[in-house]
């Protein structure tokens, strides 16, 4: 048994994983604790409860979090988490539970989860891209997760896709994330003179609903997103040569609206030598369990 913990901006999910299946979960709030120590106490308490309730000992704990550095076990100034200082969460959880704990970046965790349990099984070279509030990525190259010299490799979302383009959350301009995140698609819809009323709905789902009803700006929004994402993915393929690219996250669930124009753009932009050697698919893991499975997979590294 392995414990997988997914640290989110508002809540965190703790799951017990047995051979690639999530068999029990608990959820605690991420915000609202006195400090990071109180949060770690609450996490450890949930871990103990899960183990006791299921009568199964856990051999390791994997924790996926934004801005987490796997080399150091530290969450580094995550903008969407309540603590502005560095939080050595792996050590804090390990001290409180007595169970070996590994911390990793959430996008890397998603890549590992897909590799061990989902659409990347059996492949030695894989690229996973998460499309949501942000755009994250994890690269598996020759059977290894790429961490880079300081533990922060794989920031495809902050690759410049438009020179002097939109301002990104990283304060630079023209990053892929500024175009194909939830915020990015919503901005594109407005720039295409879409109906502001539509954006009163949630995330990108509201644009997908409008597109399905024939809204021209909404349809065009997905085509534009496909063009930018196609450039980013084709460029990434040229660097590490994955056998498969897996898309994960809410936006990737927009179905044919995104995937049809994206497949076309991707194939068109791929360097010839990659044609027929790389495919582009969406995640094979259940949405509810993917982050926990990914966090659990961090312990197998
Ligand atoms: Zn950026």
Molecular structure report:
The structure is a single chain. The strands form 3 sheets. The protein has a 5-stranded mixed beta sheet, with helices on both faces. The protein has a 5-stranded mixed beta sheet with strand order 10-9-8-11-12, with helices on both faces. With 301 residues, the chain is an alpha/beta fold. The protein has 2 domains: 120 residues, Nucleotidyltransferase, domain 5, CATH 3.30.420.40; 162 residues, ATPase, nucleotide binding domain (Nucleotidyltransferase, domain 5, 2-Layer Sandwich), CATH 3.30.420. The protein is globular, with a radius of gyration of 19 Å. The longest helix has 25 residues. It starts with a strand and ends with a helix. Helices cover 37% and strands 21% of the residues. Helix 3 packs across helix 9 and helix 6 packs across helix 7. The mean pLDDT is 95. Zinc ion binds next to loops. Zinc ion (ZN) binds next to loops.
Short summary:
With about 300 residues, the chain is of the alpha/beta class.
Summarize the biggest pleated sheet. Answer: 5 strands, mixed
Distance from N terminus to C terminus (CA atoms, Å) equals 16 Å
Question: What would CATH call the homologous superfamily of the largest domain?
Answer: ATPase, nucleotide binding domain
Helices and strands: which structural class?
alpha/beta
Q: Order of strands in the sheet with the most strands?
A: 3-2-1-4-7
Report the CATH C-level class of the largest domain: Alpha Beta
Secondary structure: number of strands = 12
Q: Say what the CATH topology of the largest domain is.
A: Nucleotidyltransferase, domain 5
- Flag low-confidence runs: none
Oligomer: single chain
């Amino acid at each position: 048994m392995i414990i997988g913990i997914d640290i989110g901006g508002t809540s965190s999910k703790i799951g017990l994983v047995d051979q690639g299946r999530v068999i029990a979960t608990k959820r605690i709030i991420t915000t609202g604790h006195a400090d990071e120590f109180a949060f770690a106490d609450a996490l450890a308490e949930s871990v103990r409860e899960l183990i006791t309730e299921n009568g199964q000992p856990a051999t390791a704990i994997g924790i996926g979090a934004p801005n987490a550095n796997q080399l150091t076990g530290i969450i580094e100034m995550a903008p969407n988490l309540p603590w502005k200082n560095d939080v050595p969460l792996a050590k804090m959880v390990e001290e409180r539970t007595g169970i070996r704990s590994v911390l990793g970046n959430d996008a890397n965790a998603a890549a590992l989860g897909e590799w061990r349990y989902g659409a990347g099984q059996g492949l030695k070279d894989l690229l996973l891209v998460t499309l949501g509030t942000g755009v994250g990525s994890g690269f598996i190259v020759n059977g290894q997760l790429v961490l880079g010299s300081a533990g922060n490799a794989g920031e495809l979302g902050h690759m410049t896709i438009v020179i002097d383009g939109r301002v990104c959350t990283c304060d630079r301009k023209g990053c892929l994330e500024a175009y194909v995140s939830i915020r990015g698609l919503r901005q594109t819809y407005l720039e295409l003179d879409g109906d502001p009323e539509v954006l009163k709905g949630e995330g990108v789902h509201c644009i997908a609903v409008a597109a399905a009803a024939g809204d021209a700006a909404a349809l065009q929004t997905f085509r534009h997103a496909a063009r930018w994402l196609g450039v980013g993915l084709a460029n990434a393929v040229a660097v590490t040569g994955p056998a498969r690219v897996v898309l994960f996250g809410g936006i990737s669930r927009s179905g044919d609206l995104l995937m049809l124009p994206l497949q076309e753009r991707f194939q068109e932009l791929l360097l010839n030598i990659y044609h027929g050697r790389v495919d582009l698919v969406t995640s094979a893991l259940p949405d509810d369990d993917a982050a926990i499975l990914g966090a659990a997979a961090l312990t197998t590294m």
